[in-house]
């Protein structure tokens, strides 16, 4: 039978509970929404529709502009009005394409509004642009089939929303020489859902791919935003730790509180300074030391 005072259990559990609470709240952040505008460049009655990956319902033209801004590359958009009274409709995106007026037809009552690339201000950077601006406009160095996956796919294979996101994953990785995006969507578009393979080192070797029987099934991208070398990163990290003394409370102390007579304990509290847990256990209770309060009997 194990007998322990209730306050001893609370004392052992409290630091962990408080640390988890701090961790949960400290990672929460709110990003402002950018304000976008776009110019009407044409009004049409028909235009070739994009594949299903790039037609989304929106509650307004402004929402369509935001969608274009958040899903680069996007040089123009078409808003297909659904309910003129409510202003709702369908937003058509054509990633990697430019508007071709010759493909459209005009009429007296057009329902398709063509807008140029939105100009946005305020808020945060485009969510899918990743580590640097260059990832927002991916340019494949090869379009192939049958290229082998990385040696350690458990660590280097990711679900991805498109080539832009895949290039961002590569740029944000600790080590990435190049990446291969494998589309898994209608039309095998490099701008819709698929998987991203990251290659930590080496260079792309075209001889490792196979001949495509139809269209390309893989897109290869060079890392346009490589991180500093491991040595430089390690030096920078060490400097940051040494110079950062305001975010954590590091206190080394020698104390016999809560320990058996004659023993000495040394600890570092790396929790935020707002959670200073000094003497979490009472030093004594009546005539017994803390160590004597926990009684184990068989």
From TrEMBL:
Positions of region (Disordered): 227-279
Bias-annotated ranges (Low complexity): 227-267
Biased composition (Polar residues): 268-279
Organism lineage string: Eukaryota, Fungi, Dikarya, Ascomycota, Pezizomycotina
Range of residues in the leader sequence: 1-19
Keywords per UniProt: Signal
Species assigned in the record: Penicillium chermesinum
Keyword Signal: yes
Protein's name according to its UniProt entry: Apple domain-containing protein
């Amino acid at each position: 039978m194990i007998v322990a005072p209730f306050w001893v259990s609370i004392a052992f559990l409290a630091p962990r509970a408080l640390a988890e609470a701090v961790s949960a709240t400290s990672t929460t952040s709110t990003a402002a929404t950018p304000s976008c505008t776009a110019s009407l460049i044409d009004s049409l009655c028909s235009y070739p529709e994009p594949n299903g990956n790039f037609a989304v319902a929106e509650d307004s033209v402004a929402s369509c502009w935001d969608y274009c801004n958040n899903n680069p590359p996007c040089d123009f958009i078409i808003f297909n009005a659904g309910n003129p009274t409510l202003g709702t409709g369908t937003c058509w995106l054509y990633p990697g394409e430019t508007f071709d007026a010759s493909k459209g037809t005009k009429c007296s009552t057009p329902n398709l509004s063509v807008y140029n690339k939105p100009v946005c201000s305020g808020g945060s950077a485009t969510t899918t642009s990743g580590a640097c601006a260059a990832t927002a406009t991916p340019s494949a160095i090869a379009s192939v089939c049958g290229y082998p996956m990385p040696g350690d796919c458990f660590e280097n294979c990711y679900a991805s929303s498109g080539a832009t996101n895949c290039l961002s994953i590569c740029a944000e990785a600790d080590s990435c020489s190049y990446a291969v995006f494998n589309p898994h969507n209608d039309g095998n578009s490099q701008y819709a859902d698929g998987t991203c393979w990251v290659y930590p080192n080496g260079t792309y070797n075209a001889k490792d791919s196979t001949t495509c029987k139809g269209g390309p099934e893989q897109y290869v991208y060079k890392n346009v935003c490589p991180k500093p070398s491991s040595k430089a990163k390690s030096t920078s990290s060490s400097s940051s730790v040494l110079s950062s003394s305001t975010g954590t409370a590091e206190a080394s102390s020698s104390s016999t509180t809560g320990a058996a007579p004659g023993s000495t304990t040394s600890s570092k509290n790396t929790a935020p300074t707002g959670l200073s847990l000094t003497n979490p256990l009472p030093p004594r209770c009546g005539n017994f030391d803390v160590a004597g309060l926990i009684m184990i009997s068989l």
